[in-house]
Amino acid sequence: MGRVFRKFLESKRVYSCHTCDAHLADEEHIISKSFQGRLGRAFLFESAINISRGPEESRVLMSGVYKVADICCKVCGALLGWEYLEAKEESQKYKEGRILLEKTRLTRTGNW
Ligand SMILES: [Zn+2]
Predict the structure, then answer these.
(1) How many angstroms separate the alpha carbon of residue 99 from the centre of ligand 1?
(2) How remote is the CA of residue 90 from the centroid of ligand 1, in Å?
(3) What's an example of a GO molecular-function annotation for this chain (predicted)?
(4) Which of 18, 25, 39, 106 has a CB 3.0–4.6 Å from the CB of 45, allowing a cystine?
């Protein structure tokens, strides 16, 4: 495997990859902590770093039909969640471009 450039967040409270500790998202960028992922509870973030996107696909979720792309850790390849690319329902449009990360795939680093 080639060397992957790993970015770091300046924030004191960071959610990192459970497998390799790569920084993923700033605690201040959480939109909601009450989302449902494939593996249970999940958090919705405004943005994330050190991630790579899988192919775009349509998926039927509890709240409607979406175009999504799976999100993996860019450093270790672990599946972390997905990105909402497009929502069909007007009321769900706020999720577009946002990143859902599975709680069980996250670890807290920094000064909590
Ligand atoms: Zn990782």
Answers:
(1) 16
(2) 34
(3) metal ion binding
(4) 25
Residue 86 structure tokens: 């497009």
Classify residue 7: in a domain, yes or no: no
Residue range(s) defining the domain that contains residue 25: 13-110
Q: First CA to last CA across the chain, in angstroms?
A: 33
Looking at residue 82, which CATH number applies to its domain? 2.170.150.20
Separation of CA 89 and ligand 1 centre (Å) = 32
Query: Shortest CA distance to 26 belongs to which of 46, 53, 42?
Result: 46
Model confidence over 43-93: pLDDT tens digits? 999 999 999 999 999 999 988 999 999 999 999 999 999 999 999 999 999
